[in-house]
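Notes to self after the Tuesday call (sharing in case useful).
The group wants a holo model before anyone commits to mutagenesis around the pocket. I volunteered. Ligand is iron/sulfur cluster. Logging inputs and output together so the record is complete.
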Amino acid sequence: MKRYGTLRQVSDDVVGCRLCPRLVDFREGVRVRRAFEGQEYWRRPVPGFGDPDAWLVIIGLAPAAHGGNRTGRVFTGDESGRFLMEALHEAGLANKPASVYRGDGLRLEGCYITAAVKCVPPDNKPTPEEFLACSGYLDAELRLLGNARAALALGQMAFRSYMDYVRRAGKDVRGVRFAHGASYRTDGLPVAYASYHPTPRNTYTKKLTKKMLVDLLHRIKAAHCSAIG
Ligand code: SF4
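Result:
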């Protein structure tokens, strides 16, 4: 596996990556939604972004077809991003409550956001081979975020990806189960936290409310933010 020295190097490699033929075809072939006619879609892998000294890493599944795959920034330009950024802003982790386009002035404070798979997958379902192909980038980001004390995974598949990282680091993950608000501590690695994904399917049905996510962020912040002074 390639060893990276900086997050910038990871990001540069991610953006040029064509390792997964199915995902390359899909991301490049996404049809422009009527609401975005006239806009040029990004159609490339979407790297992580945020504070390089982050104490919290947030991990999603993959960019959305008309969100990250359109704007070039994960959790940007769609409903999931709007919900997440409002919560991060309320918890004091983002300078504004909206994530609309790259270059919109959004700044994450103490946190970094990335995805387990950097290309939009059909039906939001990457294959096990695609998870594995992209895992080197996630591993590199997590290794380079040396101040990270906590990792919040959004949704079951992102949580499994983080646990795969923990396993690749040689730790025991037996007995670990996904549940909103669950946390798992592993020596030497950021503490894992799980949340439901802020997809409209969960937020419109109130399976995940803003209060649930903000409360969880406050809990994580109380446990880890003051510890790094
Ligand atoms: Fe490359 Fe990851 Fe995209 Fe596959 S999913 S093409 S490994 S960036």
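Two things stood out.
Helices lie at 7-15, 21-29, 68-71, 79-90, 128-144, 156-168, 200-203, 210-224.
The chain has one domain: 7-170+177-224.
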